Amino acid sequence: MYIVDRSKRFVRGFLLSYGPQMIKRRVWDKEFSEGKWNFIDDTRGDCVYAHLEKYAQKGSILDLGCGPGNTANELAADAYSSYTGVDISEEALAKAATRTEANGRAGKNRFVRADFLEFQPSQRFDVVLFRESMYHIPIGKILPILNKYSHHLTDKGVFIVRMYVLLNGQVKHRPMRMIRLIEGNFDVIEKRQTGEWGATVIVFRPKRNGLQTRS
Ligand SMILES: C[S@@+](CC[C@H](N)C(=O)[O-])C[C@H]1O[C@@H](n2cnc3c(N)ncnc32)[C@H](O)[C@@H]1O
Questions:
Q1: For ligand 1, is residue 132 a contact (CB within 6 Å)?
Q2: Considering the entire predicted model, what is its pTM?
Q3: Domains plus CATH for the chain?
Q4: Is 52 near ligand 1, meaning CB less than 6 Å away?
């Protein structure tokens, strides 16, 4: 049973990082419609919000892999002026839009259905966020994707990544490799882990001497 579960998790993880866009979209839509992700509907008090408030400085946020609108609706309304959420799942975005409307934030939150590996923003942002979504970028694409979005940061803009690097006391190797790539290629401003086994939040910006290529 353990081997079957592990194999299923491996196949899912592989498809969600390396699969074609249509497959990724179908898997996420199915999981959201079946309620697998209902537990993230309410994440008030999450460790990422203090960082978002600090670095958005009442400016603009791009949330890549935004999910069902938790960040867009739980973040203090006066902490930002505009928010763009990008997600591959129509199901997640439908929830995000409904929630935004009910919350009276339709004037400042907007949502786009796209694969963040291919999305081309039309503006610059004060914060580009990957909250529990960087796992779904192939390792070989981490630096090219971060370099691409670096062009869409304002002069004082930063990336914020939240992810679990430890699970049940064990290091998760892919997320750890992602953190190492970030640390080796960007200027890290802050890195915090919540509690002994909690999520890591890392805040960073492009090095002043240009974009990074070392993988
Ligand atoms: C675990 S959920 C995290 C949602 C939310 N950011 C949070 O932390 O609560 C991951 C989200 O990333 C989205 N996602 C995964 N791969 C994506 C891709 N290639 N492009 C856009 N969204 C993607 C999924 O649809 C899902 O909503």
A1: yes
A2: 0.95
A3: 2-206 (3.40.50.150)
A4: no
